[in-house]
Amino acid sequence: MYNFNHLYYFYVTAKAGGVIQAAKHLRISQPSLSSQLKVLENSLSVKLFKRVGRNNHLTEEGSTIFGYCRRMFEISEEMTDSISNRLPSAARRLHVGVSEEVDRPFVVEVVSRFLKEHGLEKRPKISVVSGHHEQLLERLRFRELDVIVTAAPTSDPDLESLARAEVPVVLACSTKWKLNTYPRNPKLSFALSAIRGGDTAQWLVPSSRYRFRSEIDRFLEKNGIKTRITFESDVMASLVRSVADGVGLAFLPVLYLAREIREKSIRAIGPKDGYWRYGVWLVGHSQSHGDHLIQSFSKAFQTICRTQSDM
Length: 311
Prior knowledge:
Number of strands: 11
Structural class: alpha/beta
Shape: elongated
Number of domains: 3
CATH topology of the largest domain: D-Maltodextrin-Binding Protein, domain 2
Distance between the termini: 64 Å
């Protein structure tokens, strides 16, 4: 009889793509994990991994054994899901990951909508953590998270997009700033000329490590617009707040401006469909089909995206 723990360690290592990531997930040392894998290889009399450059790849025998391990442990995961899905909502906890690039107040709106769908006595517990996109994907892959809200798609075969929103990106300025004329022309140069002082305005931009920042840079370059950047932040909410305070101009997804537009502290300028489209994804594990809590959260996500994207 093979050692169950050894097989599980191998399964996790193969899924993680290496010993370093697997050791972190299993919360054991790398030497200890490597030693356990070696014991398994000796008991099977096969080589499970081969070195390709700096990465470990499954051997032909390793791929075959991984197929059996995957069937074993996915059945176990399905059993866990089945038990969890039959538990009362109040006994469940939903773990949500939020990519650093996503606006936190937007996620709060989704969480609030989700919780309001459940009565006080049956209301589930929910925990939200933030992190880098790739880190969250890894945690989702290992079922440490139930869903993640992110600004980038995934092609991981173990994961799937539960919902997606493509929303307009507009030019945002404070309503304290006056307009010479309402800029109906879709060209950015006309919009800037309509804002008093817009041609010399200071610009607020997201961090250069964000995908959205590269979209902004490409758009400005394409339109020949030179900007004076005075504030760069990796917190989207700080850009929204700074625009409302009249610090400067910013390109922002209208999804993140809904409250400020309603309260008339920010004016969204540009064509109805925006200057381009910004994507937000809700990603879950491919084995989470039928989980009523995840379906409920997905519904709340889609509702908030739809209602807050209307300019």
